[in-house]
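User: Hi! Is it possible to get a structure for several chains at once, not just one? Here's what I have:
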Amino acid sequence: MTPDRDAGPAGSAVEDAPCGYLVMDHLGRVVSVNATLSRWLGIPAAELEGGEATAIFGLASAVVFETSLLPLLRLQHEVAGVSLDLKARDGAKVAVMMSADTRGEGEERLTRLVMLKAGARRDFERELLQARADAEVRLSLAQRQGELREQFVAVLGHDLRNPLAAMSSGVRMLSRRPGEAQEAEILRLMQGSIQRMSRLIDNVLDFARNRLGGGIVLDLRSGDLEAAIRQAVDELRAAEPDRAVRLDLSLAHDVPCDVWRIGQLVSNLLGNALAHGDPEEPVSVEATTSAPGALEISVCNRGAPIPLGALEKLFDPFVKLGTEGRKGLGLGLYIASEIAKAHGGLLVVTSGDVIRFTFRMPAPAVEG
Amino acid sequence: MVFAHGFGCDQTMWRHVAPQFADRFTVVTFDYVGAGGSDVTAYDPDRYRTLDGYAQDVVEIGHALDLNDAIFVGHSVSAMIGALAAIRAPAMFGTLVMVCPSPRYVDDVGYPGGFSQADIDELIAALEENPLAWSASMAPAIMGTPDQPMLGAELTESFCRLDPRIASDFARAIFSADNRADLPKVAARTLILQCRQDILASEAIGAYVRDHVPDSEMVVLDATGHCPNLSAPDQVVAAMRAFL
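Assistant: Yes, the chains can be modeled jointly so their relative placement is included. Here is the combined structure:
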């Protein structure tokens, strides 16, 4: 070993300075180490000298040193503040912060490494990283809650639209043709719409209080199913007086269900059929009970078939059918489908010349 | 001629080698996603869970450049990425140059990978736990070298910039890979460049690759360490010229 004039620590101030110091040659061999580094490693200096410099590091640090730091020293001749682990003879790890530089070319090339103990600093860095990870988790949670809130607002807007449209249309008619009999009928419809809106708002506020947990909750206390369906259909008829809507009800059996929700389902399906069907063709709504507890409702319209690709996603939230800018948030079918599921039923669609949405409860048994 | 960098750095690894071939070849260098000037938003942890994702990128680069019978020069892990790409698209790469390759870092029966499974587990855990080990690489470093002012222009660039999290994933993909079964499928003419005292890929591993890649030869360079493209670029260039 021939200590370099600049590099050799022997007898110099760095020999027992509170830092590790190592000089390495162009082949990556240790030229010299100071007493402090030798003490940290528990290995005599004479034993380290001539060996591979990477041997002083733990495995991961050796790999980083070889693949990243040595190239950097070649390219920019200096690295600073790298967090590495030394590996002592007894297996203990010594966390250090290393800075290094390189001088000279070819066989004269020497690299000097200075290391400071950095155990406490490493703990602090680890805490910072942990804090960052925690903050990211909290942020993504907050973002998800934000999305839910947006969805919530969208649902609110959607559900309030149909009854509001009916009321607005009713008011328009009242102001156009004041006649007693009609007035009474329109007022009845308006009253129904107002009731439905207030129920919606109650529901939405409950929902908000519960932080949007757990899907659609049913109220199975008995109600008038037929009246609920008629109300939903009449509301939309009033909103679109030029459209023909056929209603065919055959509800002989008792069906435990949330009648208000079923009304919402019909309203959404019919609203969808009116929005997307051929305006010259009638829309039909049929509801039958084939046995106690067995309800089937179908809504049919004629019009352009639904493209195959769109069929798959039809019941996802915020999916819009057809032309851009068409009214609706794309929530109606999603909500209808969720209502069907909440009843242990299923909402399916077939699309050909006739587009038919069918709700069945209980859901048809799946074969196999 | 496509140059691909290895683990821990970026395409600047090739700055002393690639230009030497610009007279005879169209030279292409690139950064894998997460390294150098790449767009880290393109990173997809699933795609890059294994080396196949990286090989797919190489093939996509080859398609974009319309490569036919090209030369792929891969350092370190890129040697295997190149092998996978050449198996996928044999017409694209007719020649491979593998610099310090290893098809598997973990020891196996009759195969001296150089690391025990416990070593690799410790390595990956340590890299994940201490991403600051990369901190010298991740910062766009503008550092003074008072005694070498001519390097001033270069120093405004950043060398070996890495996204530490992607680097940890990359380490996991690399050190858990086993591409030994792929070697016999390599149809390309292959040159293996090997260094002495390479802590990542010993001479025995270089010889293993030579013995299992059908049309291959190995040259042991008079260089130490894992990065002869920086420590001994002249030897790398000379060996490649002789082969080509």
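The longest helix of chain B spans residues 51-64. Chain B is about 35% helix and 15% strand.

User: Great, thank you!
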